[in-house]
Each structure stands twice: as structure tokens, then as C-alpha cells.
Design goal:
Tetrahydropterin Synthase, Chain A, 7 helices, 3-stranded antiparallel beta sheet, 3 domains, rod-shaped
């Protein structure tokens, strides 16, 4: 038993063809219609006599010819295409816009080549760290290969929807929501790189259906409601810690500058114990959250 290989699956490729101009055939159809009308008038003029068999047969033939020719007309607007098949065999795709005629026995599958948007719903997934998040994206796409879109997938619209959700879930699980390591890409902090990765993954999967991805953008990104409050408190704590670090670094540099200026300008001579006390007082003043009230010391550090 022969099993299909990967090379035999999805091997359809678009074959552009040029359909016949429909205007000359329309003139022929008009001439046939005129002959039918003239034949009917001639038959009706033979009142009281049976019309000849040949006249009736010719009228039937002309009517069948008119029906055959009329069934082959089709119109294509800009950014539209028609896939032609004859008894199951692919005959080619017509992309040019205009008024055309093709064999009426050929099946004509009309496909829009315009850019379409898929506005995905909010998906609840886990990021790289396992935190539940909500994410959604809008994807712009268009049909690139009409033969693949018609023959290689059951429904290219449904294929785009399912593959887009799958790719978005995979991308969301490949990055942290935020607070990554240094130079690490996160969903929140590197939107352009994340969307580029999403477009690349979508293009790889949707190419099997003859679909080209125009662009993709994240429309919603947030923590899931059940962890949103906890994550907000964590972010606030991290922000406070980061602010404290900057305050301490600045305070230490200011204390160092103050001690250096006092020493260089010989304002006062301080031993190690007095320097420690001064450093402590300055750090309290510079790092304290509330307003500091000075305390006057009437004695000395040694009494």
C-alpha cells in the first residue's frame, strides 16, 4: 500500500491562465437570440399549419446554444480571482479583471485577493514563567496562491483562524510577560520583536494554504484577573526597591562629596567616629521618607 509523502501533499501551485474576452461571444449570443426570435415569429406566422420539424429542431438547437454560451460568462473585479476546474482537474486561475467567458462545464470558484483582518479573541495562556496572562492580536492576511487556498486546505478562512490562535499561544509561551533578564525580550517591553516573531511563525504555517501574512499586532496584553492584583503589588514593590536603590546610590555619593569637601577645604577635622556619625545623619536626612527635624546636641559625642 502506497502512503502519501510530504512531497505529494500540498503540491498544488497556481497556474495563471487568460480567459477569453466575453464581448465577441456576447455579440454571438445576441445574434443567436435574434435568430430564435425570428424563427418564433416565422413559426407563429404559419397559423393553421403545423410548422416544419426542421424548423422546430433548429429552434431547440439555437436555444440550447444560447443557454450554453450564457452560462460561461463571468466578471472579475480588481483583486479578485477565479479558479477553473473541469471535471475535478485544475485548469488554472484567472486574475485579470474584466468581462470573460470560459467553458460552462468548468467550475468557477471565486476568491477575493483583498487584504483581510482576523481580529482574534482574548486568549488565556501562560507566559514563559508560567504566569497566566490574557493576549489578543489582529492579523492582516491575503490569499497569495489561489490553487493552494482552494485545494490544499478544507477552508482557508478556518485554517487562518485556527493557525493564528495556535501561533499566538506559542509566541506567548516563549517570552516572559515582563521583568526579564538583562537584554531579554519580553512581551510587554519588546512589541516590535514579538510581532516580528509572530509574523514569521504565522507565515510559515499559513504558507501551506497559499496565504500571505501582511502584518500582525498585539491588541491586548494583561495579566489574568486572578493574578492581576498580586502581580500589581509585585510590580509596585519592585518599583519601590528600584527607587530606593537610586536614592541610596545618590545619597552615598553626596555624603562622599560632603566629606571630601570638608577635608579638602579644612573646614573641620573629623576622626573616624565623628565621620561615622555624620554619615549616619546625612543618610537619614537624604534617604528618609518624611521631613527630618534636627536635634541640637549640647554635649559631645564622648559625653
Amino acid at each position: 500500500m502506497n502512503t502519501p509523502t510530504s512531497a505529494s501533499l500540498g503540491s498544488n501551485r497556481e497556474q495563471p491562465v487568460r480567459a477569453k474576452n466575453a464581448w465577441p461571444i456576447l455579440f454571438v449570443l445576441c445574434a443567436i437570440a435574434a435568430l430564435i426570435v425570428a424563427q418564433l415569429i416565422a413559426d407563429l406566422s404559419l397559423a393553421g399549419r403545423n410548422p416544419a420539424f426542421g424548423s422546430t429542431a433548429s429552434t431547440v438547437i439555437l436555444v440550447l446554444a444560447a443557454i450554453f454560451l450564457g452560462a460561461g460568462f463571468f466578471i472579475l473585479q480588481p483583486n479578485e480571482a477565479v479558479v477553473l476546474t473541469l471535471f475535478g482537474a485544475y485548469c488554472g486561475s484567472v486574475r485579470a479583471n474584466g468581462f470573460f467567458w470560459a467553458n460552462p462545464f468548468k467550475r468557477k470558484t471565486r476568491i477575493s485577493l483583498r487584504v483581510r483582518n482576523f481580529n482574534g479573541e482574548k486568549l488565556k495562556v501562560n507566559d514563559k514563567r508560567g504566569n497566566p496572562i490574557e493576549i489578543a492580536a489582529v492579523i492582516g492576511w491575503r490569499v497569495q496562491d489561489t490553487a493552494q487556498a482552494v485545494f490544499d486546505v478544507e477552508s482557508y478562512d478556518a485554517y487562518v483562524r485556527i493557525q493564528s490562535e495556535s501561533a499566538l499561544r506559542h509566541i506567548a509561551g516563549s517570552y516572559l510577560y515582563d521583568d526579564g533578564e538583562r537584554n531579554e525580550v519580553t512581551l510587554r517591553g519588546a512589541g516590535s520583536e514579538v510581532t516580528a516573531a509572530l509574523v514569521a511563525e504565522l507565515q510559515q504555517s499559513l504558507a501551506k494554504a497559499g496565504v500571505s501574512v501582511v502584518e500582525a499586532r498585539l491588541t491586548h496584553l494583561a495579566y489574568a484577573p486572578e493574578v492581576a492584583q498580586a502581580m500589581l503589588r509585585r510590580q509596585q514593590a519592585e518599583a519601590i526597591i528600584a527607587a530606593r536603590q537610586k536614592i541610596v546610590i545618590g545619597a552615598v555619593s553626596m555624603v562622599e562629596m560632603a566629606l571630601r569637601e570638608l577635608t579638602d577645604k579644612h573646614v573641620v577635622t573629623l576622626d573616624e567616629e565623628r565621620k561615622a556619625a555624620m554619615v549616619s545623619n546625612l543618610l537619614v536626612v537624604l534617604c528618609g521618607e518624611t521631613e527630618v527635624h534636627p536635634v541640637i546636641n549640647a554635649g559631645t559625642l564622648y559625653s
